[in-house]
Amino acid sequence: QLRLVESGGGLVQPGGSLRLSCVASGSTLDGYAIAWFRQAPGKEREGVGCINSRGGSTVYADSVKGRFTVSRDNAKNTAYLHMNSLKPEDTGIYYCAVETRYCSGYKAVGRHAMDYWGEGTPVTVSL
Question: What is the pLDDT of residues 3-38, one digit of tens each?
Protein backbone atom coordinates (compact mmCIF):
# COMPACT_ATOMS: atom_id res chain seq x y z
CA GLN A 1 0.00 0.00 0.00
CA LEU A 2 1.47 3.30 -1.11
CA ARG A 3 1.51 6.02 1.52
CA LEU A 4 2.11 9.70 0.69
CA VAL A 5 3.10 12.40 3.17
CA GLU A 6 3.27 16.09 2.26
CA SER A 7 5.36 18.69 4.06
CA GLY A 8 6.73 22.18 3.60
CA GLY A 9 3.57 24.22 3.92
CA GLY A 10 3.32 27.33 6.05
CA LEU A 11 2.69 31.05 6.14
CA VAL A 12 4.35 33.16 3.46
CA GLN A 13 3.97 36.75 2.30
CA PRO A 14 2.68 37.58 -1.17
CA GLY A 15 5.48 37.32 -3.68
CA GLY A 16 7.29 34.73 -1.60
CA SER A 17 8.23 31.13 -2.34
CA LEU A 18 7.71 27.71 -0.83
CA ARG A 19 8.76 24.21 -1.74
CA LEU A 20 6.41 21.39 -0.86
CA SER A 21 7.58 17.80 -0.64
CA CYS A 22 5.65 14.58 -1.09
CA VAL A 23 7.44 11.54 0.29
CA ALA A 24 6.24 8.06 -0.57
CA SER A 25 6.58 4.90 1.49
CA GLY A 26 5.31 1.35 1.17
CA SER A 27 6.06 1.26 -2.54
CA THR A 28 8.16 2.98 -5.14
CA LEU A 29 6.95 6.03 -7.04
CA ASP A 30 8.70 4.89 -10.22
CA GLY A 31 5.58 3.70 -12.00
CA TYR A 32 3.32 6.56 -11.00
CA ALA A 33 2.53 9.98 -12.32
CA ILE A 34 2.38 12.47 -9.45
CA ALA A 35 -0.13 15.29 -9.26
CA TRP A 36 -0.59 18.19 -6.90
CA PHE A 37 -4.00 19.53 -5.94
CA ARG A 38 -5.18 22.29 -3.65
CA GLN A 39 -8.37 23.09 -1.86
CA ALA A 40 -9.27 26.54 -0.61
CA PRO A 41 -11.92 27.00 2.11
CA GLY A 42 -15.38 26.56 0.65
CA LYS A 43 -14.08 25.53 -2.75
CA GLU A 44 -13.63 22.28 -4.62
CA ARG A 45 -10.27 20.55 -4.81
CA GLU A 46 -8.52 21.61 -8.00
CA GLY A 47 -5.52 20.35 -9.91
CA VAL A 48 -2.34 22.38 -9.82
CA GLY A 49 0.03 20.28 -11.88
CA CYS A 50 1.16 16.81 -12.78
CA ILE A 51 4.39 15.07 -13.80
CA ASN A 52 4.56 11.70 -15.51
CA SER A 53 6.43 8.70 -14.12
CA ARG A 54 9.66 9.40 -15.98
CA GLY A 55 9.56 13.11 -15.28
CA GLY A 56 9.66 14.02 -18.95
CA SER A 57 6.26 15.63 -19.22
CA THR A 58 4.39 18.08 -17.04
CA VAL A 59 1.06 19.85 -17.17
CA TYR A 60 -0.09 22.85 -15.14
CA ALA A 61 -3.26 24.74 -14.34
CA ASP A 62 -3.41 28.10 -16.10
CA SER A 63 -3.53 29.88 -12.75
CA VAL A 64 -0.04 28.66 -11.78
CA LYS A 65 1.78 28.42 -15.11
CA GLY A 66 5.13 30.19 -14.96
CA ARG A 67 5.04 30.32 -11.15
CA PHE A 68 4.83 26.68 -10.02
CA THR A 69 7.02 23.74 -11.02
CA VAL A 70 6.43 20.06 -10.32
CA SER A 71 9.52 17.88 -10.09
CA ARG A 72 10.45 14.47 -8.79
CA ASP A 73 13.43 12.51 -7.53
CA ASN A 74 12.66 8.82 -7.96
CA ALA A 75 15.84 7.84 -6.13
CA LYS A 76 14.46 9.59 -3.04
CA ASN A 77 10.89 8.45 -3.67
CA THR A 78 9.92 12.10 -3.43
CA ALA A 79 8.07 14.69 -5.49
CA TYR A 80 8.18 18.44 -5.12
CA LEU A 81 6.03 21.46 -5.84
CA HIS A 82 8.12 24.61 -6.18
CA MET A 83 5.94 27.68 -5.75
CA ASN A 84 7.15 31.16 -6.61
CA SER A 85 5.49 34.59 -6.77
CA LEU A 86 2.80 33.37 -4.41
CA LYS A 87 -0.52 35.17 -4.28
CA PRO A 88 -3.22 35.24 -1.59
CA GLU A 89 -5.44 33.18 -3.91
CA ASP A 90 -2.88 30.36 -3.70
CA THR A 91 -3.92 29.80 -0.09
CA GLY A 92 -5.27 26.33 0.64
CA ILE A 93 -4.50 22.77 1.63
CA TYR A 94 -2.09 21.21 -0.87
CA TYR A 95 -2.26 17.51 -1.59
CA CYS A 96 -0.15 15.15 -3.63
CA ALA A 97 -1.71 12.17 -5.35
CA VAL A 98 -0.72 9.52 -7.87
CA GLU A 99 -2.08 7.66 -10.85
CA THR A 100 -0.42 4.97 -12.92
CA ARG A 101 2.40 6.17 -15.17
CA TYR A 102 0.91 9.10 -17.11
CA CYS A 103 -1.10 12.23 -16.32
CA SER A 104 -3.85 11.22 -18.70
CA GLY A 105 -6.42 10.65 -15.97
CA TYR A 106 -5.45 13.92 -14.27
CA LYS A 107 -5.98 15.78 -17.53
CA ALA A 108 -9.28 14.06 -18.25
CA VAL A 109 -11.06 13.95 -14.90
CA GLY A 110 -8.74 15.56 -12.37
CA ARG A 111 -8.98 14.34 -8.79
CA HIS A 112 -11.31 11.47 -9.72
CA ALA A 113 -8.46 9.68 -11.51
CA MET A 114 -6.09 9.48 -8.56
CA ASP A 115 -5.29 6.18 -6.88
CA TYR A 116 -3.63 7.34 -3.66
CA TRP A 117 -3.65 10.62 -1.72
CA GLY A 118 -1.65 12.28 0.98
CA GLU A 119 -3.17 14.05 3.98
CA GLY A 120 -2.25 17.53 2.77
CA THR A 121 -0.16 20.43 3.99
CA PRO A 122 -1.57 23.95 4.53
CA VAL A 123 -0.29 26.98 2.67
CA THR A 124 -1.32 30.49 3.68
CA VAL A 125 -0.28 33.50 1.61
CA SER A 126 -0.90 36.65 3.58
CA LEU A 127 0.77 39.77 4.91
Answer: 999 999 999 999 999 999 999 999 999 999 999 999
